[in-house]
Protein backbone atom coordinates (compact mmCIF):
# COMPACT_ATOMS: atom_id res chain seq x y z
CA UNK A 1 0.00 0.00 0.00
CA UNK A 2 1.03 3.64 -0.40
CA UNK A 3 1.15 5.44 2.92
CA UNK A 4 3.05 6.69 5.93
CA UNK A 5 2.90 6.35 9.71
CA UNK A 6 3.35 9.58 11.68
CA UNK A 7 4.66 8.59 15.13
CA UNK A 8 5.72 10.85 17.99
CA UNK A 9 8.25 11.02 20.77
CA UNK A 10 5.35 11.47 23.23
CA UNK A 11 1.67 12.27 23.47
CA UNK A 12 0.83 15.77 22.22
CA UNK A 13 4.07 16.00 20.22
CA UNK A 14 2.05 17.09 17.20
CA UNK A 15 1.15 13.81 15.47
CA UNK A 16 -2.49 14.77 14.89
CA UNK A 17 -1.83 18.16 13.33
CA UNK A 18 1.12 16.93 11.23
CA UNK A 19 -1.08 14.11 9.93
CA UNK A 20 -3.79 16.64 9.08
CA UNK A 21 -1.28 18.90 7.34
CA UNK A 22 0.07 16.04 5.24
CA UNK A 23 -3.49 14.97 4.34
CA UNK A 24 -4.39 18.46 3.11
CA UNK A 25 -1.06 18.83 1.24
CA UNK A 26 -1.82 15.59 -0.63
CA UNK A 27 -5.50 16.44 -1.18
CA UNK A 28 -4.38 19.75 -2.69
CA UNK A 29 -2.65 17.72 -5.40
CA UNK A 30 -5.86 15.84 -6.21
CA UNK A 31 -4.57 12.73 -4.47
CA UNK A 32 -7.35 10.71 -2.86
CA UNK A 33 -6.11 10.39 0.71
CA UNK A 34 -7.55 8.99 3.95
CA UNK A 35 -6.39 9.37 7.57
CA UNK A 36 -6.14 6.35 9.86
CA UNK A 37 -5.53 5.86 13.56
CA UNK A 38 -5.71 2.23 14.62
CA UNK A 39 -6.21 2.91 18.32
CA UNK A 40 -7.08 6.20 19.94
CA UNK A 41 -7.58 7.01 23.62
CA UNK A 42 -9.65 10.17 23.77
CA UNK A 43 -12.77 11.61 25.37
CA UNK A 44 -13.25 13.98 22.43
CA UNK A 45 -15.26 12.19 19.79
CA UNK A 46 -17.80 12.76 17.06
CA UNK A 47 -20.57 10.81 15.32
CA UNK A 48 -20.18 9.93 11.66
CA UNK A 49 -22.98 10.17 9.13
CA UNK A 50 -23.84 6.49 9.61
CA UNK A 51 -23.89 6.70 13.43
CA UNK A 52 -20.41 5.50 14.41
CA UNK A 53 -18.34 7.16 17.13
CA UNK A 54 -14.73 8.05 16.28
CA UNK A 55 -12.11 10.42 17.66
CA UNK A 56 -12.56 14.09 16.80
CA UNK A 57 -8.96 14.27 15.64
CA UNK A 58 -9.67 11.67 12.95
CA UNK A 59 -12.80 13.55 11.87
CA UNK A 60 -10.66 16.69 11.59
CA UNK A 61 -8.06 14.78 9.57
CA UNK A 62 -10.82 13.51 7.28
CA UNK A 63 -11.88 17.11 6.71
CA UNK A 64 -8.25 17.90 5.89
CA UNK A 65 -8.26 15.04 3.40
CA UNK A 66 -11.58 16.28 1.97
CA UNK A 67 -13.07 12.88 2.82
CA UNK A 68 -16.20 11.89 4.74
CA UNK A 69 -15.23 10.61 8.22
CA UNK A 70 -16.01 6.93 8.78
CA UNK A 71 -15.48 4.23 11.40
CA UNK A 72 -12.67 2.56 9.42
CA UNK A 73 -10.51 5.64 9.97
CA UNK A 74 -10.46 5.00 13.75
CA UNK A 75 -11.48 1.38 14.33
CA UNK A 76 -10.55 1.29 18.04
CA UNK A 77 -11.46 4.17 20.37
CA UNK A 78 -10.84 3.97 24.12
CA UNK A 79 -12.90 6.29 26.32
CA UNK A 80 -11.51 6.47 29.88
CA UNK A 81 -14.04 6.49 32.69
CA UNK A 82 -14.11 6.11 36.45
CA UNK A 83 -12.31 3.39 38.41
CA UNK A 84 -9.47 3.01 35.94
CA UNK A 85 -11.54 1.45 33.16
CA UNK A 86 -12.20 2.51 29.59
CA UNK A 87 -15.09 1.89 27.27
CA UNK A 88 -13.77 0.06 24.22
CA UNK A 89 -15.37 1.22 20.97
CA UNK A 90 -14.89 -1.05 17.97
CA UNK A 91 -15.93 0.30 14.59
CA UNK A 92 -17.85 3.06 16.36
CA UNK A 93 -19.84 0.83 18.75
CA UNK A 94 -19.17 -0.08 22.42
CA UNK A 95 -18.03 -3.69 22.88
CA UNK A 96 -16.48 -3.81 26.37
CA UNK A 97 -15.36 -2.04 29.53
CA UNK A 98 -11.73 -2.87 30.23
CA UNK A 99 -8.85 -1.90 32.47
CA UNK A 100 -5.23 -1.81 31.32
CA UNK A 101 -4.68 -5.53 31.94
CA UNK A 102 -7.93 -6.93 30.57
CA UNK A 103 -7.57 -4.72 27.49
CA UNK A 104 -4.45 -6.66 26.56
CA UNK A 105 -6.59 -9.79 26.29
CA UNK A 106 -8.84 -8.02 23.78
CA UNK A 107 -5.93 -7.11 21.50
CA UNK A 108 -6.01 -10.23 19.25
CA UNK A 109 -9.68 -9.58 18.43
CA UNK A 110 -9.02 -5.89 17.77
CA UNK A 111 -5.89 -6.49 15.70
CA UNK A 112 -7.78 -8.34 12.97
CA UNK A 113 -10.27 -5.48 12.64
CA UNK A 114 -7.46 -2.90 12.51
CA UNK A 115 -5.66 -4.75 9.71
CA UNK A 116 -8.91 -5.23 7.77
CA UNK A 117 -9.84 -1.54 8.07
CA UNK A 118 -6.44 -0.38 6.88
CA UNK A 119 -6.58 -2.76 3.93
CA UNK A 120 -10.10 -1.53 3.11
CA UNK A 121 -8.99 2.11 3.10
CA UNK A 122 -5.90 1.26 1.05
CA UNK A 123 -8.17 -0.34 -1.53
CA UNK A 124 -10.43 2.73 -1.82
CA UNK A 125 -7.90 5.57 -1.50
CA UNK A 126 -4.64 6.38 -3.27
CA UNK A 127 -2.78 7.04 -0.01
CA UNK A 128 -3.43 6.38 3.70
CA UNK A 129 -1.67 8.60 6.26
CA UNK A 130 -1.64 6.83 9.62
CA UNK A 131 -1.18 8.43 13.02
CA UNK A 132 0.48 6.51 15.81
CA UNK A 133 -0.56 6.57 19.47
CA UNK A 134 1.57 7.89 22.32
CA UNK A 135 5.15 6.83 21.60
CA UNK A 136 6.38 3.84 19.57
CA UNK A 137 9.05 3.30 22.24
CA UNK A 138 6.63 2.15 24.95
CA UNK A 139 8.62 -1.06 25.32
CA UNK A 140 6.34 -2.44 28.04
CA UNK A 141 3.48 -2.56 25.51
CA UNK A 142 5.31 -3.52 22.32
CA UNK A 143 4.32 -7.21 22.29
CA UNK A 144 0.65 -6.33 21.76
CA UNK A 145 1.07 -3.07 19.85
CA UNK A 146 -1.48 -2.43 17.09
CA UNK A 147 -1.04 1.33 16.66
CA UNK A 148 2.67 2.06 16.18
CA UNK A 149 5.47 -0.24 15.05
CA UNK A 150 3.22 -3.29 15.08
CA UNK A 151 1.04 -1.53 12.52
CA UNK A 152 4.02 -0.28 10.51
CA UNK A 153 5.45 -3.78 10.20
CA UNK A 154 2.11 -5.40 9.42
CA UNK A 155 1.42 -2.92 6.61
CA UNK A 156 5.00 -2.29 5.47
CA UNK A 157 4.78 1.42 6.28
CA UNK A 158 7.64 3.92 6.53
CA UNK A 159 7.62 5.84 9.83
CA UNK A 160 8.37 9.50 10.48
CA UNK A 161 8.87 10.51 14.13
CA UNK A 162 7.62 13.93 15.26
CA UNK A 163 9.24 15.68 18.23
CA UNK A 164 8.03 18.82 20.03
CA UNK A 165 11.11 21.02 20.43
CA UNK A 166 9.16 23.54 22.53
CA UNK A 167 9.25 21.03 25.41
CA UNK A 168 13.02 20.77 25.29
CA UNK A 169 15.17 17.68 24.86
CA UNK A 170 13.96 16.94 21.35
CA UNK A 171 17.26 15.43 20.12
CA UNK A 172 17.46 13.07 23.07
CA UNK A 173 13.80 12.14 22.60
CA UNK A 174 14.25 11.38 18.89
CA UNK A 175 17.49 9.43 19.34
CA UNK A 176 16.09 7.57 22.33
CA UNK A 177 12.88 6.67 20.52
CA UNK A 178 14.79 4.96 17.73
CA UNK A 179 17.36 3.47 20.10
CA UNK A 180 14.69 1.64 22.13
CA UNK A 181 13.24 -0.14 19.09
CA UNK A 182 14.21 -3.61 17.89
CA UNK A 183 16.26 -3.89 14.69
CA UNK A 184 13.14 -5.01 12.83
CA UNK A 185 11.19 -1.97 14.04
CA UNK A 186 14.06 0.42 13.40
CA UNK A 187 14.13 -0.70 9.76
CA UNK A 188 10.82 1.15 9.26
CA UNK A 189 11.90 4.49 10.81
CA UNK A 190 12.85 6.71 7.87
CA UNK A 191 13.25 10.17 9.38
CA UNK A 192 12.21 12.89 11.78
CA UNK A 193 10.12 16.07 11.86
CA UNK A 194 10.87 18.80 14.41
CA UNK A 195 7.69 20.57 15.54
CA UNK A 196 7.04 23.98 17.16
CA UNK A 197 10.47 25.54 16.62
CA UNK A 198 10.92 29.16 17.68
CA UNK A 199 13.85 31.28 16.62
CA UNK A 200 16.54 31.24 13.95
CA UNK A 201 16.74 27.83 12.27
CA UNK A 202 20.46 28.31 11.67
CA UNK A 203 21.01 27.65 15.37
CA UNK A 204 19.44 24.22 14.93
CA UNK A 205 21.54 23.01 11.98
CA UNK A 206 24.47 21.54 13.95
CA UNK A 207 22.06 19.43 16.00
CA UNK A 208 20.21 18.24 12.92
CA UNK A 209 23.47 17.17 11.33
CA UNK A 210 24.60 15.29 14.44
CA UNK A 211 21.22 13.53 14.72
CA UNK A 212 21.62 12.31 11.15
CA UNK A 213 25.14 11.10 11.86
CA UNK A 214 24.03 9.28 14.99
CA UNK A 215 20.95 7.63 13.51
CA UNK A 216 21.56 7.53 9.77
CA UNK A 217 18.19 9.17 9.25
CA UNK A 218 17.41 12.69 8.01
CA UNK A 219 15.32 15.42 9.59
CA UNK A 220 12.63 15.91 6.95
CA UNK A 221 11.55 19.31 8.17
CA UNK A 222 11.57 21.88 10.96
CA UNK A 223 8.02 23.16 11.42
CA UNK A 224 7.95 26.61 13.05
CA UNK A 225 5.84 27.59 16.01
CA UNK A 226 2.55 28.81 14.59
CA UNK A 227 0.77 30.97 17.19
CA UNK A 228 -2.97 30.65 17.27
CA UNK A 229 -3.09 27.30 15.49
CA UNK A 230 -5.54 24.88 17.09
CA UNK A 231 -7.57 21.94 15.85
CA UNK A 232 -9.92 19.59 17.69
CA UNK A 233 -7.68 18.54 20.57
CA UNK A 234 -7.36 14.84 21.29
CA UNK A 235 -6.69 14.71 25.01
CA UNK A 236 -6.58 16.76 28.21
CA UNK A 237 -2.95 17.74 27.59
CA UNK A 238 -4.41 20.29 25.17
CA UNK A 239 -7.20 21.50 27.45
CA UNK A 240 -7.69 25.22 26.97
CA UNK A 241 -5.39 25.38 23.93
CA UNK A 242 -8.23 25.97 21.47
CA UNK A 243 -9.07 29.21 19.68
CA UNK A 244 -8.42 32.22 21.85
CA UNK A 245 -6.25 30.28 24.31
CA UNK A 246 -4.13 32.88 26.09
CA UNK A 247 -5.54 35.66 23.90
CA UNK A 248 -6.07 39.12 25.30
CA UNK A 249 -9.71 40.31 25.19
CA UNK A 250 -10.81 42.64 22.41
CA UNK A 251 -10.00 46.25 23.38
CA UNK A 252 -12.75 48.76 24.02
CA UNK A 253 -15.21 46.53 25.85
CA UNK A 254 -15.33 44.17 28.81
CA UNK A 255 -15.07 40.58 27.59
CA UNK A 256 -17.82 38.05 28.06
CA UNK A 257 -16.34 35.72 30.67
CA UNK A 258 -17.15 32.05 30.15
CA UNK A 259 -16.10 29.47 32.74
CA UNK A 260 -16.06 25.80 31.70
CA UNK A 261 -15.95 23.55 34.74
CA UNK A 262 -12.93 21.29 34.47
CA UNK A 263 -14.56 18.01 35.48
CA UNK A 264 -12.30 15.07 36.39
CA UNK A 265 -13.80 13.00 33.55
CA UNK A 266 -14.47 15.86 31.14
CA UNK A 267 -15.37 14.81 27.60
CA UNK A 268 -15.85 16.69 24.34
CA UNK A 269 -14.39 19.85 25.83
CA UNK A 270 -14.03 20.98 22.20
CA UNK A 271 -17.67 22.11 22.56
CA UNK A 272 -16.17 25.34 23.92
CA UNK A 273 -14.01 25.99 20.85
CA UNK A 274 -16.63 27.97 18.93
CA UNK A 275 -17.23 30.16 22.00
CA UNK A 276 -13.51 30.73 22.49
CA UNK A 277 -13.24 31.82 18.85
CA UNK A 278 -15.50 34.79 19.55
CA UNK A 279 -13.31 37.92 19.75
CA UNK A 280 -15.46 39.38 22.51
CA UNK A 281 -15.35 36.29 24.74
CA UNK A 282 -12.74 34.78 27.04
CA UNK A 283 -13.09 31.08 27.90
CA UNK A 284 -11.41 29.58 30.95
CA UNK A 285 -11.39 25.97 32.11
CA UNK A 286 -11.54 26.05 35.88
CA UNK A 287 -12.23 24.17 39.09
CA UNK A 288 -12.25 27.28 41.30
CA UNK A 289 -15.55 28.24 42.96
CA UNK A 290 -14.69 31.96 42.72
CA UNK A 291 -14.33 31.78 38.93
CA UNK A 292 -17.61 29.88 38.65
CA UNK A 293 -19.29 32.53 40.79
CA UNK A 294 -17.94 35.51 38.87
CA UNK A 295 -18.27 34.32 35.24
CA UNK A 296 -20.97 35.65 32.92
CA UNK A 297 -21.70 32.12 31.72
CA UNK A 298 -20.84 28.80 33.35
CA UNK A 299 -20.75 25.61 31.30
CA UNK A 300 -21.03 22.13 32.76
CA UNK A 301 -19.50 20.13 29.89
CA UNK A 302 -19.76 16.51 28.87
CA UNK A 303 -18.59 13.78 31.22
CA UNK A 304 -17.63 10.14 30.87
CA UNK A 305 -18.67 9.59 34.53
CA UNK A 306 -21.69 11.77 35.27
CA UNK A 307 -22.48 10.54 38.79
CA UNK A 308 -18.84 10.60 39.91
CA UNK A 309 -18.32 14.10 38.51
CA UNK A 310 -21.55 15.29 40.14
CA UNK A 311 -20.22 14.10 43.51
CA UNK A 312 -16.96 15.93 42.79
CA UNK A 313 -18.91 19.14 42.03
CA UNK A 314 -20.43 18.94 45.48
CA UNK A 315 -17.15 18.11 47.21
CA UNK A 316 -15.45 21.12 45.59
CA UNK A 317 -18.21 23.57 46.49
CA UNK A 318 -18.97 24.09 42.81
CA UNK A 319 -22.50 22.68 42.94
CA UNK A 320 -23.41 25.33 45.52
CA UNK A 321 -22.04 28.07 43.26
CA UNK A 322 -23.96 26.76 40.22
CA UNK A 323 -27.21 26.65 42.20
CA UNK A 324 -26.61 30.15 43.56
CA UNK A 325 -26.08 31.44 40.02
CA UNK A 326 -29.40 29.97 38.90
CA UNK A 327 -31.21 31.51 41.88
CA UNK A 328 -29.71 34.90 40.99
CA UNK A 329 -30.78 34.65 37.34
CA UNK A 330 -27.24 34.15 36.00
CA UNK A 331 -26.77 31.79 33.05
CA UNK A 332 -25.68 28.16 33.26
CA UNK A 333 -25.41 25.80 30.27
CA UNK A 334 -25.17 22.02 30.70
CA UNK A 335 -24.03 19.90 27.76
CA UNK A 336 -24.65 16.13 27.67
CA UNK A 337 -23.33 14.91 31.05
CA UNK A 338 -23.54 18.49 32.33
CA UNK A 339 -27.21 18.57 31.28
CA UNK A 340 -27.78 15.35 33.22
CA UNK A 341 -26.29 16.94 36.34
CA UNK A 342 -28.77 19.82 36.10
CA UNK A 343 -31.78 17.46 36.20
CA UNK A 344 -33.77 16.49 39.30
CA UNK A 345 -32.79 12.81 39.54
CA UNK A 346 -30.44 10.36 37.87
CA UNK A 347 -31.23 6.63 37.69
CA UNK A 348 -27.97 4.87 36.88
CA UNK A 349 -27.41 1.13 37.14
CA UNK A 350 -25.18 1.14 34.05
CA UNK A 351 -22.29 3.63 34.16
CA UNK A 352 -21.78 4.06 37.92
CA UNK A 353 -24.16 1.44 39.33
CA UNK A 354 -25.21 4.03 41.92
CA UNK A 355 -28.95 3.60 41.42
CA UNK A 356 -31.02 6.69 42.22
CA UNK A 357 -28.99 9.87 42.73
CA UNK A 358 -30.27 13.37 43.48
CA UNK A 359 -29.00 15.78 40.83
CA UNK A 360 -28.84 19.58 41.10
CA UNK A 361 -32.56 20.02 40.45
CA UNK A 362 -32.20 23.11 38.27
CA UNK A 363 -34.10 21.71 35.29
CA UNK A 364 -37.44 19.85 35.24
CA UNK A 365 -36.02 16.57 33.97
CA UNK A 366 -35.00 13.07 35.01
CA UNK A 367 -32.18 10.92 33.63
CA UNK A 368 -32.19 7.16 33.04
CA UNK A 369 -29.07 5.33 31.97
CA UNK A 370 -29.50 2.52 29.47
CA UNK A 371 -27.05 -0.10 28.27
CA UNK A 372 -27.54 0.89 24.65
CA UNK A 373 -25.44 3.89 23.68
CA UNK A 374 -27.16 6.70 21.80
CA UNK A 375 -25.02 7.72 18.80
CA UNK A 376 -26.64 9.97 16.24
CA UNK A 377 -26.61 13.28 14.47
CA UNK A 378 -29.54 15.54 15.32
CA UNK A 379 -31.23 18.58 13.90
CA UNK A 380 -33.92 20.97 15.08
CA UNK A 381 -34.51 24.65 15.77
CA UNK A 382 -33.22 27.15 18.29
CA UNK A 383 -34.35 30.78 18.50
CA UNK A 384 -36.35 30.01 15.35
CA UNK A 385 -33.20 29.02 13.47
CA UNK A 386 -32.21 25.61 12.06
CA UNK A 387 -29.49 23.98 14.19
CA UNK A 388 -27.61 20.69 14.16
CA UNK A 389 -25.57 18.68 16.64
CA UNK A 390 -24.65 15.13 17.55
CA UNK A 391 -25.39 12.88 20.53
CA UNK A 392 -23.08 10.49 22.43
CA UNK A 393 -24.57 9.21 25.68
CA UNK A 394 -25.95 6.33 27.76
CA UNK A 395 -27.97 8.66 30.00
CA UNK A 396 -31.28 9.65 28.40
CA UNK A 397 -32.85 12.86 29.71
CA UNK A 398 -36.63 13.14 29.86
CA UNK A 399 -37.76 16.75 30.20
CA UNK A 400 -41.03 17.27 32.05
CA UNK A 401 -41.60 20.95 31.45
CA UNK A 402 -39.48 24.02 31.00
CA UNK A 403 -38.95 25.94 27.81
CA UNK A 404 -37.80 24.35 24.56
CA UNK A 405 -34.08 24.38 23.87
CA UNK A 406 -32.28 22.44 21.11
CA UNK A 407 -31.59 18.93 22.33
CA UNK A 408 -33.02 19.62 25.78
CA UNK A 409 -34.87 22.24 27.79
CA UNK A 410 -34.43 25.53 29.66
CA UNK A 411 -35.75 27.01 32.87
CA UNK A 412 -35.02 30.71 33.37
CA UNK A 413 -31.25 31.21 33.11
CA UNK A 414 -30.48 27.47 33.08
CA UNK A 415 -30.11 25.66 29.74
CA UNK A 416 -29.49 21.99 29.04
CA UNK A 417 -28.78 20.09 25.85
CA UNK A 418 -27.79 16.54 24.94
CA UNK A 419 -26.24 17.83 21.72
CA UNK A 420 -22.57 18.35 21.19
CA UNK A 421 -21.53 20.91 18.59
CA UNK A 422 -24.53 23.16 19.23
CA UNK A 423 -22.48 26.34 19.51
CA UNK A 424 -20.84 25.66 16.15
CA UNK A 425 -24.12 26.89 14.63
CA UNK A 426 -23.08 30.49 13.99
CA UNK A 427 -26.40 32.34 14.06
CA UNK A 428 -27.60 30.38 17.11
CA UNK A 429 -24.34 31.07 18.98
CA UNK A 430 -24.56 34.81 18.38
CA UNK A 431 -28.12 35.08 19.71
CA UNK A 432 -27.37 32.85 22.68
CA UNK A 433 -24.33 34.87 23.72
CA UNK A 434 -26.25 38.13 23.35
CA UNK A 435 -28.85 36.73 25.76
CA UNK A 436 -26.10 35.65 28.17
CA UNK A 437 -24.58 39.14 28.08
CA UNK A 438 -27.97 40.75 28.63
CA UNK A 439 -28.48 38.62 31.76
CA UNK A 440 -25.06 39.80 32.94
CA UNK A 441 -26.06 43.42 32.39
CA UNK A 442 -23.69 43.99 29.49
CA UNK A 443 -23.75 44.12 25.71
CA UNK A 444 -22.09 41.54 23.52
CA UNK A 445 -21.12 42.15 19.91
CA UNK A 446 -20.45 38.76 18.28
CA UNK A 447 -17.86 38.23 15.61
CA UNK A 448 -19.14 37.95 12.05
CA UNK A 449 -17.30 34.76 11.22
CA UNK A 450 -18.16 31.22 10.21
CA UNK A 451 -16.75 28.65 12.60
CA UNK A 452 -16.53 26.02 9.86
CA UNK A 453 -14.61 28.49 7.69
CA UNK A 454 -12.30 29.24 10.62
CA UNK A 455 -11.55 25.54 11.03
CA UNK A 456 -10.91 25.27 7.29
CA UNK A 457 -8.38 28.12 7.48
CA UNK A 458 -6.64 26.31 10.32
CA UNK A 459 -6.31 23.20 8.17
CA UNK A 460 -4.82 25.25 5.34
CA UNK A 461 -2.31 26.74 7.80
CA UNK A 462 -1.20 23.23 8.73
CA UNK A 463 -0.86 22.31 5.06
CA UNK A 464 1.26 25.44 4.50
CA UNK A 465 3.60 24.33 7.29
CA UNK A 466 4.17 21.07 5.41
CA UNK A 467 4.46 22.72 1.99
CA UNK A 468 6.88 25.41 3.12
CA UNK A 469 8.95 23.77 5.85
CA UNK A 470 9.04 20.02 5.16
CA UNK A 471 10.97 18.14 2.50
CA UNK A 472 7.86 17.27 0.51
CA UNK A 473 9.87 15.51 -2.18
CA UNK A 474 11.34 13.14 0.41
CA UNK A 475 7.92 12.64 2.01
CA UNK A 476 6.37 11.77 -1.34
CA UNK A 477 9.16 9.30 -2.04
CA UNK A 478 8.50 7.57 1.28
CA UNK A 479 4.76 7.48 0.62
CA UNK A 480 5.09 6.03 -2.88
CA UNK A 481 8.17 3.82 -2.55
CA UNK A 482 8.28 2.87 1.11
CA UNK A 483 11.17 2.82 3.57
CA UNK A 484 14.62 2.91 1.98
CA UNK A 485 16.86 -0.09 2.58
CA UNK A 486 20.14 -0.10 4.42
CA UNK A 487 19.15 2.08 7.37
CA UNK A 488 21.66 1.54 10.20
CA UNK A 489 20.86 0.02 13.57
CA UNK A 490 20.90 2.48 16.50
CA UNK A 491 22.05 0.87 19.77
CA UNK A 492 21.04 -0.39 22.25
CA UNK A 493 17.77 -1.53 20.67
CA UNK A 494 14.83 -3.04 22.50
CA UNK A 495 15.83 -4.93 25.69
Strand content: 25-35%
Q: Portion of residues in helices?
A: 25-40%
- Spatial strand order of the main sheet: 15-13-16-18-25-24-23
Average of per-residue pLDDT values: 92
Helix/strand class = alpha/beta
Cα-atom radius of gyration: 23 Å
Count of distinct strands: 25
Poorly predicted spans: none
Cα distance spanning the termini = 31 Å
Biggest beta-sheet profile:
7 strands, mixed
Descriptive tags:
25 strands, 7-stranded mixed β-sheet, 32% helix, 495 residues, 6-stranded parallel β-sheet
Please sum up the structure shown.
The chain has 495 residues and is an alpha/beta fold.
Model description:
This protein has about 500 residues and is an alpha/beta fold. It has 15 helices and 25 strands. A seven-stranded mixed sheet has the order 15-13-16-18-25-24-23. A six-stranded parallel sheet has the order 2-9-1-10-11-12, with helices on both faces. A hairpin with a 2-residue loop joins strand 23 (about 405) and strand 24 (about 410). Helix 1 packs across helix 14 and helix 5 packs parallel to helix 7. The chain is globular and about 70 Å long. It starts with a strand and ends in a 14-residue tail after the last helix. The mean pLDDT is about 90.
Amino acid sequence: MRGLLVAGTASDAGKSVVTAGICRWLAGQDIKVAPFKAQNMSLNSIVTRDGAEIGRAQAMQAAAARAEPEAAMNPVLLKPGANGTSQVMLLGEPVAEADALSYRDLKPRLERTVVDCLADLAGRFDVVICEGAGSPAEINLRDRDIANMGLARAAGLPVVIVGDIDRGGVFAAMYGTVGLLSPEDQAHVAGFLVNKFRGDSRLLKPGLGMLRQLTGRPVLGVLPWAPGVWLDAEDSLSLGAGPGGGRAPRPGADPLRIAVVRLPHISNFTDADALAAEPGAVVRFTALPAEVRDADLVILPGSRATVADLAWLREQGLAEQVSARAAAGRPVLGICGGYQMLAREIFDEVESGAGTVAALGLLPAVVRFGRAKVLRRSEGTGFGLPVTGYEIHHGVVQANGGEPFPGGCAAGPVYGTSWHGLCENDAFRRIFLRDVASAAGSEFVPGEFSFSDLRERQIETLADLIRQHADTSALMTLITRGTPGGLPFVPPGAP
